[in-house]
Design brief:
Shape: elongated
Largest sheet: 10 strands, parallel
Strand content: 5-15%
CATH topology of one domain: Leucine-rich repeat, LRR (right-handed beta-alpha superhelix)
Strand order of the largest sheet: 1-2-5-6-7-8-9-10-11-12
Helix content: 40-55%
Distance between the termini: 71 Å
Protein name: Leucine-rich repeat-containing protein
GO cellular component, one term: Cul2-RING ubiquitin ligase complex
Structural class: mainly alpha
Radius of gyration: 38 Å
InterPro entries: ARM-like, ARM-type_fold, LRR_dom_sf, Zyg-11_UBL_adapter
CATH architecture of one domain: Alpha-Beta Horseshoe
Length: 732
Amino acid sequence: MINSLQDLTSQKVAEYIHNGDYNETAYILDTKTSNKVFSRLLELNNGISENLLKLIDGKLNLSKINLQGVSVNRKIVNMVNKYCLESLILGSSNLNEGPSNDIFQACVVDMASLLKNLLNEGSLLNLRHLSIRTNQKFLSEWTQEISCLLPNLQSLSIKNRQFFCDESFSEHCQNFSNLLFLDISGTNLENLWGISHLNHLQVLHMRNLKFENNNCLMELFNLKDLRVLDISRDWDILNTQIIEQYLECGMVLPKLKFLDCSGTDICQYFLDNLLNTHDNLKQIVTWNTHLEDAVKAGIELLNGSTITTTINSLVHYMNLKRKAPIGWCLEVISNFLEINENEQFNVSECINHISRAMGIEKSLESRHNGIKCLTQISLHHYKKLRSFEIFRLLDYLLNYCNELQHYSPEINEHFWTSIINLISLGACQFDYDKICLTVLKYLTKSKHFHGSITSTCSILTVLIPAMSRKSMISITNEKENSTQIVEILKLGLDLKCAPWCISALGVLQLFSLINHDACRNIISVGGIDILFKCLKLAVKDIQTLAINVLTNIAILLKYDEIREIFTDENSRTIKQMLNKFDVSRSMHVISLLTLILSRENGGNGPIHCRLWSCSSLLTVDCFTDFLTGYYKIHYTKYRELSDPTSVPVFPTLCSLSVSLHFPYVCFSDSQIHNVQVTYPRAFEFNCNSFMLFSVTFASYLLKTYPSTPKPTGLSVLNIINNNELPTISETD
């Protein structure tokens, strides 16, 4: 499952309202959408505030409002009174600016007067659910007054509220005889006397209640329509005998379908007894009991016996908003996924439930287990997902990226490995902008990025070219991003970790290829010195990538800026390393040196040439054949020529192809003149057309003259330094 269109729309509207960008008042949203928007706004604003009240004024049509944890004052009352409500949750009612002076009398709340002020006539008539979550003392006979005010009330929750000595549970039941739902969990009730008045009741929650004997439960069995019963205990509350007392009554609830017995004294014997007497019983919750891992034919036990029963338990606890059990279920699901990769379950529903659970239970431990669940699914169960489900799973994971800093490096590494796995499926068009921005934010903010450097940088290397142009420019312009990538490169050099260096250089190569500011950022954070250190490492890929980054910088910057970078010392480093390079790396160095020398001889502005990278890639694999073709032609067919002005056109053009882009750097004026006369169109010094010509001609030479032994890096260096060919023997 994925979020409905209404859910997605509601989230966006909430964000617009939160940011002050939603000013539509001519059209008011429907109640269902309004409730979703308001719920999301409460998350964004961390509760109700005066600013939020201003933002939603005249824009929403609410039917549900949750005031738990909100200090109800005059402004809150005025806001609530505008809507026709079906559900209201009240928390602490500390009224410093009460709507009237008689609501409070010596710290005693006049609940009836409070509701009269909060609810307009439509709300009083339509309210179906009321939840009161406070232990404040109310004026006597408050239930009788409220029952008259709210004639259609069907659901009442007073869980964790203590009954005072002048309050009678029996009177409560008499006054709310039409209730279908009642929650009295965590109260101080010692018996259920009077509950038989609720003869329409279908759902009863009485968790954490303790009774002295079975007589205290007898009236429970007068609820002939009861379908759901929760008699569970929290896991830290022991010594309960509630199931034994229930069975001792010797009576049944004929329509009971669901029974929550978690944390109780239920055992196999009691279970068999229940099944023999309750024909309609379909589900029993048995967490933290002797039946926690049990399986029983004919009934579904919600426990940790299988991943499916655990997921169903998770759904049950999410519906009740019980955070602690939600966390326990996430942990058990995580363990199942980690231990048994072949476990059969509904993967799509599991993803949806886990994401929803993480939105309810936000503790670090629960989020940690939730992330583990999603990563395990991404790594081992992705084949069961459809394209849109893969997209949604990736989106879920990215949304939790900010929390990775709280977890171990191992979790961080598994997280990014799972991201790569989903991307590599190529099942749909992902949001590449969001992915890359999330990765960069992670690298700059997280303290546990070290174990994920290779994964995160590889994501950037692959996906940055797929980003929108606007986002691509934005991320490369950010100095913080360049700083972090250079720091990763430096760290890789210090630790002699080649994969880190290669990963960081791959990203820097993209950054430096995109715009001037990225190049200047790399320079300003000390990237040049680090790049030259990379050239001294005996790792081919590192050296090649470092040269490419330096070349990109030389392309995009002006000559005055280049001169500050490529000092004599740095140039000597390049030339010294050239003698140790193989043909491929020599090719890249020639490209860089040719570029620098050409700029020194008059080129001043940045070079805007679409074919620079293309021609380099086209010629690098053919580099050996270009040079050997040059040698073969020059030292066999044309050895008798002594006049330097008569150097043949073919070998000269072959050398031009080797030097790639700027031939006038490497050869004498007479050589250039000779070629210009012969091929004038090729030397209009239009960068694009000449490179295309150069590569095309080199390809022709490659087919015409077969390969001969490879030249050394030194011979290439001599071509660049001396503008002439080295003397070699005929056998060479």
